[in-house]
Amino acid sequence: MEREGAERFSLVTSGRGINEGDFPKALAIYRRLARETNLKLCASLGIITVNMARSLTEAGVTMYHHNLETSESYFPQICTTHSYQDRINTIKACQAANLEVCCGGIISLGETMGQRFEMAFTLRDLKVQSVPINILNPIKGTVLENQSVLPALEILQTIAIYRFILPEAKLRFAGGRENALRAGFRLFGGNQCYFGR
């Protein structure tokens, strides 16, 4: 992996959070990687406590990924297994453990433009410096399979306003970027668009 040019490694779990039995296994993997490689270690294990976050730091993890998903006012329409505060608490736990936090969300879930900005201001207040912006890719058989994807111009407007609200953050154009960038490329007559710092 490292010989092939990889610089980062992350364990990613699904669900509300990693279970008690698997967490020690994850720590063991990280400790070995910290000993035997020069990889930057990341984690995306769902909701965790401050003690778990400190254990990750001690094992060599430097970054934790935990998206807000959407704004607090729209969150109940998207997730019912836990609260928005649970997500905020995890971000603060990671920051207390000196982990860098990568945290963003998904747009085009049916939220309003105002709710997109609400999420951006929450990220600003949390002082998040790495912000992935995903665009929904409706998948057949899921709850949002019939959700219309935002027009390219509205996606680009959203990203532009995120840049104003989060001037120092690294905005990461993530899931769904292929279609949005292709549409934006056509929209602006082939001029390249860049949303970095």
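[next item in queue]
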Amino acid sequence: MFGYRSDGKKIKKIDPLMRIVPHIMFLRNDSQVMQLQEIDCEAMDNYILDKRRTEGLRLTYMDIVMASFVRVLSMRPKLNRFIVNGRIFKRNTIQISLAVKKKLVDEADETTIKLSFDGSESIKDVMEKIHKVVNENKGDVTNETDNIAKILTSAPNFLIKFMVRFLMWMDKHGMLPKKIIEASPFHTSIFLTNLKSIKMETVYHHIYNFGTTGLFVSMGKETLEPKVVNMATKEIGVKKIMKMGIVVDERITDGLYNSLSLREFKKIMENPYILDERNENVILDD
């Protein structure tokens, strides 16, 4: 209560304009800013092939996306802030949530997983954690998120509404139990959806009002598109492009900081070798 939470620490010294913005835009869907990122896949394809040949690593685009965001948030920590009840908090850790189909069939159940990072991880560290957790949640396995959802939905509809609203009220006032926050996929730095895995194009997905998510990232399938391949000669060529829809809560930091952070993300995605080494200079949010 009174600005104290288990998942973050209230920021007391902040620019007056940024402090008043959450009292003008109350909800996350009031303050969504959307950006389309077009990633040239050539560098990623070469990197994945190189790592498979030389180190036996079976990397995917999702591994590179998640490792890139972990690295960006470790260098640009203000992007990892969140807003609750008009207060701005810095998060204790870097977290990424994603939805996972337990089987690739229509009837299969869907679950959500949340991974935590400290920002020092190399791409190999991120890949191993992703694959371990995804494999643990396949089949008939249930996790804490599934168990809480099952308890809530076992009640009649009017009680579900009451319980969800009560949980939202508790969260707003810093009274939500730590166990629920740890299990909730909505209390996370980034929520990621991999539409590429089901051969769909990217979307701009809304940010949930429940929880603390500051970014929602959608990966779309690759497409072949005409692009300028030589600026000097204006030569046009065909490039394989992966489009990503990124939605940011603009209240967490100013527009310049957001823009430079996403520019850094694109830079890493198009030169993944940056992720080979662990990050020994994690910047803390002051």
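[queue empty]
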